[in-house]
Design a protein that fits this description.
- The protein is an alpha/beta fold and about 350 residues long.
- About 40% of the residues lie in helices and about 20% in strands.
- The chain is built from eleven helices and 14 strands.
- It has helices spanning about 10-20, 40-50, 60-70, 85-90, 95-115, 150-165, 200-210, 235-250, 270-280, 305-310, 320-330; strands at about 1-5, 25-30, 55, 75-80, 120-125, 170-175, 180, 215-220, 230, 235, 255-260, 265-270, 285-290, 300.
- The strands form four sheets. It has a seven-stranded parallel beta sheet with strand order 3-2-1-4-5-6-11, with helices on both faces. A three-stranded mixed beta sheet has the order 12-9-14.
- Strand 2, helix 2 (about 40-50) and strand 3 (about 55) form a beta-alpha-beta unit.
- Helix 1 (about 10-20) runs parallel beside helix 2 (about 40-50) and helix 3 runs parallel beside helix 5 (about 95-115).
- The longest helix is centred in the first third of the chain and has 21 residues, at about 95-115.
- It is globular, with a radius of gyration of 19 Å.
- The mean pLDDT is about 95.
- Bound molecules: uridine-5'-diphosphate-4-deoxy-4-fluoro-alpha-D-galactose.
- The site of uridine-5'-diphosphate-4-deoxy-4-fluoro-alpha-D-galactose (UFG) has 21 residues, from helix 7 and strand 8.
Length: about 350
């Protein structure tokens, strides 16, 4: 099938593009490169061994989107495009709401005009809010978010559910990601954040590379076995394969379904630090600092529904994630800017 990836040059999208091509699908990409680099797509082409059609355009631009749908008979859209920095979203909320909501509305309007009614959306475990209990199941009540970025994910889920309610021919798959880390095992594509990373794994790899002095562990007084925050880290290639299954599912079903994409296993910050040091034989300097506002004790998935309905489950280990993240960082000290 022909699959459009919005925000196709990003971290999760590039890995998904590789797995979709490996599964025999035809991929088209749209990206405005505000938070990504066209070099990432060159590397994807190198991995898959053939060109991938890409448009440089903003998903908020109705004319550009019209042209893409007029020129390509799209079967399924995977909507990755969006601003995603939690802290930044608190500083410039209007930009987050405008960009993330507008792009989704423009995309859906264009899809409807062209009779393309299958959409897979990049949502986030952040929509669950502060969990009352873990593991998190898709049918649990979402208590609301602690930042505008999270709210855009929450609101887009509601918008898409509304689209399906109004027109039952639509097929919408909402994928709630947990904590994607790691990189393609080739070391050619990976996560390339702008500036000082906010997330744990890219921060660790920059410390390991000597680009940052030491990691600050945000709190060791959480209600967890070692006191540091527990998350469900998932290898980005496993996550990418979840999208391949979600596209297959969208082809054969109508309605709106939500799936957690996580491993179901929670690891602490110190588990990650220790595993990274061990598998890569690198000493990681760290200090314990205060808690970061908005962080929860523990967040991990119940991945049963994805296993039973999509036939998908994560296979890679924490060791794989740490080894592949370091392989990418070591080979690309400046990400795609080398
Ligand atoms: N952490 C540190 N030091 C750092 C960075 C992070 O100790 O320098 C800790 C955090 O306190 C947390 C854990 O590492 O316990 C993971 O933090 P991340 O920032 O890597 O990830 P989060 O779980 O906070 O957030 C991620 C994504 C969000 C998404 C959310 C879904 O960044 O986009 O998962 O639950 F919404």
């Amino acid at each position: 099938m022909k699959i459009l990836l919005t925000g196709g040059a990003g971290f999760i999208a590039t890995h998904t593009c590789v797995e979709l091509c490996a599964a025999g699908h035809d991929v088209v990409i749209v990206d405005n490169y505000v938070n990504s680099n066209p070099e990432a797509l060159r590397r994807v082409e190198e991995i898959v061994g053939h060109p991938v059609k890409a448009y440089e355009a903003d998903v908020c631009d109705p004319e550009a989107m019209e042209r893409i749908f007029a020129e390509n008979q799209i079967d399924v859209v995977v909507h990755f495009a969006g601003l995603k920095a939690v802290g930044e979203s608190v500083q410039i909320p209007l930009r987050y709401y405008r960009n993330n909501l507008d792009s989704t509305l423009t995309l859906c309007e264009t899809m409807a005009r062209h009779g393309c009614k299958r959409l897979v959306f990049s949502s986030s475990a952040t929509v669950y809010g502060e969990p009352d209990e873990v593991p998190l199941r898709e049918d649990m009540f979402c208590k609301g978010c602690t930042n505008p970025y999270g709210w855009t994910k929450y609101m887009i889920e509601k918008i898409l559910q509304g689209v399906v309610n109004a027109d039952p021919e639509w097929s919408v798959v909402l994928l709630r990601y947990f904590n994607p880390i790691g990189a393609h095992e080739s070391g050619r594509i990976g996560e390339d954040p702008n500036g000082i990373p906010n997330n744990l794994m890219p921060y660790i790899t920059k410390v390991a590379a000597g680009q940052l002095k030491r990691l600050t562990v945000f709190g060791n007084d959480y209600n967890t076995p070692d006191g540091t925050g527990v998350r469900d880290y998932i290898h980005v290639v496993d996550l990418a394969n979840g999208h391949v299954k979600a596209c297959d599912y969208a082809m054969d079903h109508v309605g709106c379904e939500i799936f957690n994409l996580g491993t179901g296993v929670g690891y602490s910050v110190l588990d990650l630090v220790n595993t990274f040091s061990r598998v890569n034989e690198i000493d990681l300097p760290y200090m314990i600092g205060p808690r970061r506002a908005g962080d929860v004790d523990a967040c991990y998935a119940d991945p049963k529904k994805a296993r039973e309905v999509l036939g998908w489950e994560a296979r890679k280990t924490l060791e794989d994630m740490c080894r592949d993240a370091w392989h990418w960082q070591k080979n690309n000290p400046k990400g795609y800017h080398d």
